[in-house]
Amino acid sequence: MEIRDTMLPVLAPQGGKEEIQALQEVIESGWWGKGPKVAEFEEKFAEMVGHKYACAVTSASHGQDLVMKALGFKDIDVINPAISFIATAMIPLWNGFTSNIVDVKRDTLCIDPEDVERYKKPNSEALIAVNQAGVPCDFEELRKVFGGFIIEDTAHSCYTPGAGQGGDVAVWSFQAVKTMPCGDGGMITSNDKELIEKCREMTWFGVSSTWSRASGAKPGYAWDYQVDLVGYKYYMIDIMAAICLEQMKKLPANLEFRRHVQKRYNEELHPVFERPPHSETVQYYCPRITEKFLNVAPDGSGYSGKISRDNLIDYLADKKIHTSVHFKPLYLYEPLKQDRSYPICDREWTRFITLPCHNRMKEEDIDYVIYWVNKWVEDKYL
Fold first, then answer.
1. Nearest to 33 by CA among 179, 207, 192, 161
2. Over the stretch 185-230, which tens digit does the pLDDT of each residue have?
3. Which of 220, 246, 272 corresponds to the end of one domain?
4. Could you say which of 228, 246, 264 is where a domain stops?
5. Domain count, the chain
6. pTM of the predicted model, to two decimals?
């Protein structure tokens, strides 16, 4: 097969004339900040995910940070899974807390309840449970071993059945390469009205929004506001909300296509690859190189041999296919190093790879990835 002229991205957003029209309407309205579009998006998104209340924010990271601030935690330990984007473990550090990183389950790469029980501390009052690649955590088992507050990180699982219902609060992401992107943004959802109202008040320095004051009973007094608590600048604006509202309409069809990509990879990739758990959202497609094709290092910490994940990354880059790794373990970063072992994560992370899966892809792109991945296997093994 002939090599492409341009790089096929591993992740990419897809928009169209609907988003352009929605943006034009906001621009022409004269109200670009937090206003009616944000309020509409909050209401519709809460209904979609099965929660009563929602607060739109600038990012999922800011959403998690806001929840911790709103709950008034002091000097606590926050438990995190070893496999996650670095923001998950950095947010506790922003607040002066410790990030307690525990191992993951081999099958799902979600947080391991047994490791939570093993390493939780007397001041472990919060836990961030990441639905890795859209696969839900085992919340039933987590609740058996952890009695603190659970933030469900649903950044990868927008529209996954049951997503958002396992934790005490859910935080969603609309970052540029998520399944429902708007450039950047996030949402906090919960059935706890008091928590959501406090988070909303804190999104703009403790001041109620200009829109709610300007459109209220005394619009001439929008300048007169009360501040009762310390707040931040974490609110979403109507420009982003307008894109999200259009992306919401497209989400079912977009996810259907991503599941089609998942199905084709599952059916057509060489058996050297261990298929990932089924995901309804397919935020990432992350197969693993099957263990029998790798030589296990003598100390059991990883793999060695002529075939490696990194070798495949380089090979596919030469064929103009961009790949990634979701994710490098958190404990390998200097600010997050821990004094313990991670037997599952150490063995697994060196053999998984993220292949292209997004709504800009066409059938010929899927064909192209499958061909070159399988060709690599044939050249190396057969």
1. 207
2. 999 999 999 999 999 999 999 887 666 666 666 666 667 778 889 9
3. 246
4. 246
5. 2
6. 0.94
